[in-house]
Amino acid sequence: MKLSVFFNHLLQAAEQTGQSLDDMMKMASANGVSAIETHVELIDRDPNMKSRLENAGIRVNCPYEFFGWNGDEYGDMTRLHHLIDTAVEFGADKVLVVPGFLGEAEHKVLNDILDRTEVSLEGFASPEFNKFMNECEDITMIKDMMGRAVEYGKKRGVTVMIEDFDNLSSPVARTLPIMWFLKNVDGLKFAFDTGNFASADEDSFIAGELLREYIVHLHIKDKGVEEGYEGAKFSRGLATVSVGSGYLPIADIVKWARSWGYDGYFAIEHFRHPDQAKGIPESAAFLKGI
Fold first, then answer.
1. Comparing C-alpha atoms, which of 191, 205, 208 is closest to residue 269?
2. The dihedral of CA 257, 259, 265, 268: what is its sign?
3. pLDDT tens digits, residue range 233-257?
């Protein structure tokens, strides 16, 4: 099993323990982690990143970046080119883009529609849903920029992905809009985050089956039970926990992914974990034990 971890977690582990970043990278490597997922800014910030990674036996799997493609950044390819060029420089063949966030009125309308639309192929065909997606100016701008991103990625040999983002103001927070972008932007792929559908109170397995043909990467995130979710359909809380210690069926999802041939990295993700130096080995051990 190929394991990666978010670079942020290693930085946080160093901060929490008082040990060096290099020590935390070696700790991750000793626990079977061979790659990182990282915000491109963290690569830019460290001129010694290449040698630091090499010394720890770790590579860059997937850089990512946040954009404002439905705002002032529409049409500006500067940061997008930098993200993809950085991936090439560090030997990564994929990038993750967070495309932007809808305004309050737009995301309220979209989520109201989705709240009364079944997460299924039939729901995807809903005239109300498709009317919004086709007529919303923000969606049109983001779709256009996603297309440009994919085209530049192709030129450089890099796959461009979106993920299920854990903020309902994102146009890619829920299954049906994600599917809409994947079907309407040729060549766009999907990074399946096992935990983020809980933020939208949607079922990860249903989403995974609907989006499976586009999945090229997995973020393995668990969630812990919290009070206040008794009336939810699928979510029982959003607490940050080590992988395997929450309520999500992580082992079943991993086995499901392997059943249809997924052979990429399983990226350990638990932002804001209270003890990353403990959580990373716990998560790695759980995944290797499946």
1. 191
2. positive
3. 999 999 999 999 999 999 999 999 9
